[in-house]
Specification:
The protein is 81% helix and 8% strand. The protein has helices at residues 2-49, 69-125; strands spanning 56-60, 63-67. Strand 1 (56-60) and strand 2 (63-67) form a beta hairpin. Heterohexamer of two PFD-alpha type and four PFD-beta type subunits. This is Probable prefoldin subunit 6. Residues 94-121 form a coiled coil.
């Protein structure tokens, strides 16, 4: 009985660790996306300051290529929309992982209580010398 509970407990601990690892990976990804979104917001503000006759250049490899202002704004808007959708996806994954981690913790608490009770029963059932 005690060994069975210990196996379940260890299995649950392993699942918890894996979910925490996944959570930290998603958190890092979210921070990167957040940084990219902030960069693009700054770029959009800068583009909004320009007049229609201003020249805009795009860095393609080692070369600066002239780009239409309207096209540049559209590209930044599309990029921001994509980043926002990725942020939402990552936030949803984080929320799911958060629930799973809470569930693992609750299960671990129950297993720990069951383990303690099994130990008490085992010690009471031992013959006294």
């Amino acid at each position: 009985m005690v060994e069975e509970i210990q196996k379940k407990f260890q299995n649950e601990v392993d699942k918890l660790r894996q979910d925490q690892k996944d959570y930290n990976k998603m958190l890092t990804q979210r921070q990167q996306l957040d940084g990219q979104l902030n960069e693009n917001i700054v770029v959009k503000k800068e583009l909004d300051l320009l007049k229609a006759d201003n020249e805009v250049f795009k860095l393609v490899g080692p070369v600066l290529v002239k780009q239409d202002l309207c096209e540049a704004k559209q590209n930044v808007d599309k990029r921001m929309d994509y980043i926002k959708s990725e942020l939402k996806r990552v936030d949803d994954i984080l929320a799911t992982l958060d629930k799973k981690i809470d569930s693992h913790r609750e299960t671990l608490e129950k297993l720990q209580q069951a383990f303690q009770q099994a130990q008490i029963k085992a010690s009471l059932n031992q013959p006294k010398s």
